[in-house]
Design goal:
By secondary structure, this protein is mainly alpha-helical. The chain contains four helices and no strands.
Amino acid sequence: MKESQVMLLHYLTGVAIILLGAFHFSLLTFAGGGLDNALTFASVLSVYTTFGLVFELFLVFLTFHTFNGFRKVLIELRQGKTYEGAVTWLMAAAGAATFLWGTRTVLIFLGVL
């Protein structure tokens, strides 16, 4: 994939993060019964079972955006084809590990695991 396409995805995920982050925040405050009730086990379980797939999409966008940003910063520190390839693979591996761990959490709350 060309770097311009990767950066377009980076920008689009940034916009999606803002929208889904606002949705997530509203669930924790307004729809979750207020801040005093938002973090009770019953409230969290209800929100995750209802909106688990939305949180999974949020996780996808956050993981890509974060680790692509780290990749871009590290590549700007030093150039070279071997170094850039190593950084890309390292960030992809770290992003995959983060995504899998987050997916595990969502699946636990959905009752799949």
